[in-house]
Amino acid sequence: MLTARNRELEKPMTSTLSFMQEDFQSTLFPLKTNLIMAEYHEDELSNYIYQKVLRSDHLGDSFLPQQTVYATKPKGHLRRTVKLDPVAEYFIYDLIFRNKTIFRPQVSDTRRSFGYRLTNGSRVPVHVAYSEYKEHLNECSKLYQHSIQFDIASYFNSIYHHDLSYWFVGKNISEVDSIAAGQYFREINSGRSIDFLPQGIYPCKMIGNEFLKYIDLSGSIKSAQIVRFMDDFILFDNDPNVLRQDFIRIQQLLGKYALNINPSKTYYDNKVGDIQETLSDIRQSLREIVTDIEEIHTASGVDVIEIEHIKESNLSNEQVDGLMALLKDDAIEESDADLILSFLRLHSDNLLELMPVLLTRFPNLIKHIHSVCAGIRDKEGLTKVIFDYLNAESDFLEYQLFWLGAILEDYLEGEKLYGECLIKIYELSVDFKISKAKILEIPELGFGLKEIRDEFLKTGQSDWLSWSSAIGSRLLPTGERNYSLNYFSKCSPMNLLVSSCVQKI
User: Fold this and answer.
1) Alpha-carbon distance 258 to 176, whole Å?
2) How many CB atoms lie within 10 A of CB 197?
3) Confidence of residue 296 (pLDDT cuts 50, 70, 90)
């Protein structure tokens, strides 16, 4: 039976804007500035890109270098990427949406790749693709005696700009679009040839997935089954020698583009989908509480399951108490806590007492915590927890501060200590432009935020701090708002775009 969320995802996308809207909450740093610009100012954004940025006779207009950000990964690792500005973000969604036919389905029944394409006018939801991927892996593990799992080390950060630009040239798209793609990849990274492809947004995931199709199409690979989810590969065959030979061939094919296999995440004959003897005691306990858990052990452990899509389970009070007890266990790991939160999302009120522990011990789960906070009814209590956490700690990551700001904006507006929390996040973000921008774009007029925005609008700067300040001023009285935006709008083409958008609201 389809949930309301699944029905929503099945609605065909009819435009670039609908593509952005559908993907917005799934991105790593969903700043509403970009979404507001697309919703209120789409024609002007498009005209600026295609009539100025991409024209050789407008040398003063180009894609801007993008702001580097770091999202969290398990065990203290960071995912380096960029937060795209309104022009750059709109362009990549538009380019991919208009050329969606170049993103093909799987090569064949024996060369399977899952996810990250548009089907029947809508994106394939990650949770749907991942479920199909798991099901196929389980089928293959029953049919074949041997397998090998591996992934590409730092895949998105390792792709070479010219390789991807030439890849676009070879696709069935217009010359204008292929040239534009090359310009875009070059300019958003200040000309650096690697580490340029943005992560965490669906159109770039589509690019990353399709780019590797040349492996699926290679006639030199002899394994009975090749199964791939983005850069996670699993090969199946009854002959281990065939697998070893293919593993060598694939490394050579990847080497053509200077891509390398991650040695620490390569496994032979891992029992895909089965319970492993090395499961932690906590995971064993979790299986005793919730007996219908489905697990998959991919080579990269890529975090593809989004909280809003996890199957809703009707847990008894005893099961809820058991899961809460596991969350309190000092030995719990992030992956276990993440899975438990997935099951407890319908029992969010129970999580309030554990929120201090979750915030302190599991920074990688902050986006997941944002989702479960929607169900906590004691809003004042939650605000107090966040306030205490912000004042007790000093070593924050930008990703944490960003999503704490999102929790406040989305669920806690008007609560006691709300304003104090906003200001504290702003103060803690001294080195983090994007978490500062998150606070500045919230249209709160009190707590000194109006005055802080005014300072950025008066300096003449053109960056995330001034753009988000302009968007954050959208609820000011019209005359006062337009006066503040007047000087700001004259300082750059981007400032003018943002200013003219705000004045429409």
Assistant:
1) 28
2) 24
3) very low
